Amino acid sequence: MFNHRLRLHGRFKVFVQAVLILGLCGPLAIAAASLSGIGHRWVDILAQFPAPVLTLTVLATLVIGLARLWTATAVGAAVLTLLLLAVWPQYAPGGPAVAPDSPVVRLYAANLYAMNDDVAAMRASIEAADADIIVLVEFGEAPNAAVETLLAGYPHREITERVVRSEDAVRSVIASRYPLSRRSTEGNERQMISAVADTPIGPVRVVGVHLTRPWPFQFQWGQIIQSQNLLDHTDGAPEPVVLAGDFNSVASARIGRLLRSQGDLVHAPGWPGTWPAALPGPLRMTIDQVYHSRDIAVARRRLGAPTGSDHRPVIVELSRPAA
């Protein structure tokens, strides 16, 4: 009888480990999609999730290990290794080092969420950041009605025309303590706004970005077409370029690869994540980003205070690169 119970226990343990290993195939597929470099829309959707899935897989593997299910634990550790390799380009982009004694320009970028009416939280977040340049997308009706209060201290401004969508109306904004020139706006549903800021590190082309949502929410080529339009706009720019805003894609997926390979751009480090803001940082995805040309260096990247939006703002300190 005792041996029979042992055999039943052993079979149950094998069954449990088989179920757990099968469950780990989901994180494995996400790691494989991220590492594959395949740009197909179905693969790209999976490639958006390695960061939050890494955190969940760490927790799951720890629990499995505490239960002494060693085979499943070993599989979990292998999947974790692949997930870490997949997400590492988001966290460590390998941009240029900062030149010693270079001035610093602080840039704040936020998706305010069009239906957000918490102007007080927006203003508090902007004041806490104490940025020199701010880039705002999904600038809805509430902040537009309080624009002078919200952008107080930023006398140089570029604001797109009001674009009415099915459920809301939005603008995009660049506001600066430094003079702005060579302005350009594209007033479609996902606006691009661009201006050259005369900063202590020299003229900088600042581009506010809001790419469309990825497939299956929008047509599959939408993000790619908009990204190529961005690169056409910045191609040959005589000044350093900074693209900031909501890219609706993580840096290690196909849009990030496109911007790096075709535009030779670098992104700021992407941890902790920015969306959805209600979740803890390790469970968020970094879809709100700052990309820059190699003649600019990022001295620091952090998140701004909540604005009432489902996105967290990003704050970067820009400087000259070391020789």
Task: Give structural notes.
It is a single chain. With 323 residues, this protein is of the alpha+beta class. It folds into two domains: 2-91, no CATH class; 105-319, Endonuclease/exonuclease/phosphatase (Deoxyribonuclease I, Chain A). 38% of the residues lie in helices and 24% in strands. The protein has helices at residues 2-23, 25-36, 41-46, 50-66, 70-91, 119-129, 141-145, 147-150, 222-234, 254-263; strands at 105-111, 133-139, 156-159, 163-164, 169-176, 180-186, 192-199, 202-210, 241-246, 266-267, 288-292, 297-303, 314-319. Strands 1, 2, 3, 4, 5, 12 and 13 form a seven-stranded mixed β-sheet that branches. The protein is globular, with a radius of gyration of 22 Å. The mean pLDDT is 91.
